[in-house]
Specification:
It contains no helices and 20 strands. The protein is mostly beta strands and about 325 residues long. It has three domains: about 170 residues, no CATH class; about 70 residues; about 70 residues.
């Protein structure tokens, strides 16, 4: 064995589910009862309250991964639990807990979590309504557009984020409170949109902004090919975004869009995180509704490769 040649300046970034520092912490115990126990992943899943525990009136209650109800918290504190391993063996390591486990859900903490995509400090946090899987999105969408006096917004470039119905648009000459009421040819990126206002005169192309919303659900037709690429040939509804979890016959669990190729919300190519070799012919592919985690932002995110290739970051919960 040779002599050690290098020493890291900083220690490893951390393990998902662990607390990052000694800041304020608030959490509650919940009985975890999700649609699938595979969704109960420590440091990667948001939960919502589903019911009170009728067997114990003093218990905090029951929570499920994902959902659209009251936010219960993010599952953390990996050192707290005894696990039953995996289907391959009781001693196999796992970050997923069995249903009916009592889990600690954090609503206030600086928590280390696993994320499906690279993030920037200040990004907002959302979760998949079906699985509870965490993702992030830019707090402000920035784009270049012209506005016709009749109410049509013509977007020629999007530098940050993704446009959606309901977003309030700001720009020189745009009336305060104007928002996107409908999609035209644009599906989140370049194309046309309808605004809720008209103006006396058209507005020439200029920089505009809009507070971001979590990505919407989508249904598309596409095929998968290696290595880790999705080709979308038609969009039935919604729009695709980085961080969305994808579903379809033969699509591996937790397949997530990690980057744009030629597609930017509609038809075209996308990178996905699945590393195993698989191909699928043209199928219907869907993504779930994404829901914002209340008062949560990305607090720390290491540089590429700093966490062994994993997207592990710190989110600040301030509920």
């Amino acid at each position: 064995m040779g002599f050690q040649q290098t020493v890291n300046i900083e220690n490893a970034f951390g393990i998902q589910g662990a607390l990052y520092d000694n800041g304020p912490v608030r959490s509650l115990p919940y009985e975890l009862v999700s649609a699938s126990a595979a969704y109960n992943v420590i440091g990667a899943t948001a939960f919502t309250v589903t019911s009170a525990d009728t067997g114990n009136s003093s218990a905090s209650g029951v929570a499920a991964a994902g959902g659209t109800g009251v936010f219960a918290g993010i599952l953390g504190n990996s050192k707290l639990y005894s696990t039953a391993g995996t289907s391959s063996g009781a001693l196999n390591p796992t970050m997923a807990l069995l249903n009916y486990t009592l889990g600690e859900l954090f609503v206030m903490a600086d928590l280390i979590v696993a994320l499906p995509n690279s993030s920037n400090i200040g990004d907002l946090v959302c979760y998949d309504a079906m699985t509870g899987a965490l993702a992030t999105y830019a707090p402000v969408t920035k784009f270049t557009a012209a506005f016709l006096s009749t109410g049509t917004l013509s977007v020629t470039a999007v530098s940050v984020g993704q446009l959606q119905v309901g977003m309030v648009v700001s720009g020189a000459g745009i009336p305060p409170g104007a928002y996107i009421t409908a999609l035209g040819t644009g599906l989140g990126y370049t194309g046309t949109y309808t605004l809720s206002c008209t103006t006396a005169a058209s507005i020439a192309s200029e920089a505009m902004t809009a507070p971001s919303l979590p990505p919407v659900a989508a249904s598309v037709t596409g095929l998968f090919y290696t290595p880790g690429m999705l080709s979308v040939t038609a969009v039935g509804s919604g729009e695709l975004a980085i961080g969305q979890v994808l579903y379809g016959t033969g699509v591996p669990a937790q397949t997530v869009i990690t980057g744009f190729g030629t597609g930017v919300g509609g038809t075209g190519t996308y990178s996905v995180n699945t590393v195993s070799t698989f191909t699928l012919g043209s199928i219907t592919i869907t993504s779930d509704l994404q829901i914002a985690v209340p008062n949560a932002t990305v607090y720390r995110f290491p540089s590429a490769g700093a966490s062994g290739g994993q997207n592990v970051g710190v989110i600040k919960l301030t509920n």
